[in-house]
Amino acid sequence: MTIRVGTRGSTLATTQSGQVAERLAVLTGREVDLVRIRTDGDVLTGPLSQMGGTGVFVTAIRQALLDDRCDVAVHSLKDLPTTPAPGLRVVTPARVDPRDALCARDGLTLATLPTGAKVGTGSPRRAAQLRLARPDLEIVDIRGNVDTRLARATGPDADLDAVVLAAAGLARIGRTAAVTDLLDPTLLVPAPGQGALAVEVRDEAFDDPGLAEALGALDDRSTRLAVTAERALLRRLEAGCSAPVGAHATVESGAHGDRLVLRSVVARVDGGASVRREDETDPAGGDDAATALGVRVADGLLAAGAADLAPLRETGAGA
Ligand SMILES: NCc1[nH]cc(CCC(=O)O)c1CC(=O)O
User: Fold this and answer.
1) What CATH homologous superfamily does 226-309 map to?
2) Any idea which residues bear S-(dipyrrolylmethanemethyl)cysteine here (predicted)?
3) pLDDT tens-digit profile of 121-163?
4) Pocket of ligand 1, beta carbon within 6 A
5) Distance 13 CA to ligand 1 centre (A)
6) What ipTM describes this predicted complex?
7) Catalytic-role residue among 42, 67, 68, 79
8) The pTM is what?
9) What share of the chain is helix, strand, coil (3-state, %, to 5)?
């Protein structure tokens, strides 16, 4: 039976949905179709911070899954609300580069941007951490799709010195050449889930042996543990994806075996203050240990006053 993969219309969405569709076609030997789903997020304009909630890009696609208009949905994991959707399950393919990328004119880097340089981002998390690293920069609120934002710094009508975008999004649409500095993830801590995809299906997908096997092959254990910890942290903070919260987990191997390490930051958007916490667990503990790690690190942030630094619950689509 044909597998229908639902996707938004943007270049980024169709590219990443197409990649998952191709893998599912190979893994199942079945025909796979892309189905275009329209969402509010593509239609709205205005500052990102005024857009309606974390799930603005996701709700319409989830509804299409539940209505049986598609069988598989592909999201950027960082855009997926941390509240589980009843009746749906998420599979996490191997994450690509989770870092934020500076795309500047003339090959400039975060260290070499001139004093007072204008840097565009629509993300409170990036704005706060850029100001922490470089208080002299002028941070400009921008939005639009990846190409529109890149043009602000690199196009013929550029009005900014640089923009910051997710390396993963640039790679997926073939624009890696625009990157002039991949930002150290301990300096600019990525958004929870950044660089990872969420492949979402109805629970019943696992009753179909061929599809269940393919979904199992698509799922990457280290990615799942990492994003589980990052998202548990976000959920514990009751923070939306537009909150100035960075969380990045990695599975690191050492002489004493593997460690799941979670690093996090909550920063005041003006860059005037921040709190950082990090902790680790044994990845052999699986999803439950990863969740407990996220909760523990979030509690450490809250104990250090994170909720006083930033409006964690603020709604809006962010990065
Ligand atoms: N904020 C929007 C968004 N959601 C997912 C990505 C692509 C990167 C990813 O999948 O993590 C982007 C673009 C960006 O943040 O630059």
Assistant:
1) Porphobilinogen deaminase, C-terminal domain (3.30.160.40)
2) 241
3) 999 999 999 999 999 999 999 998 888 999 999 989 999 999 9
4) 76, 78-79, 165-166, 168-169, 194-195, 319
5) 10
6) 0.95
7) 79
8) 0.92
9) 40, 25, 40
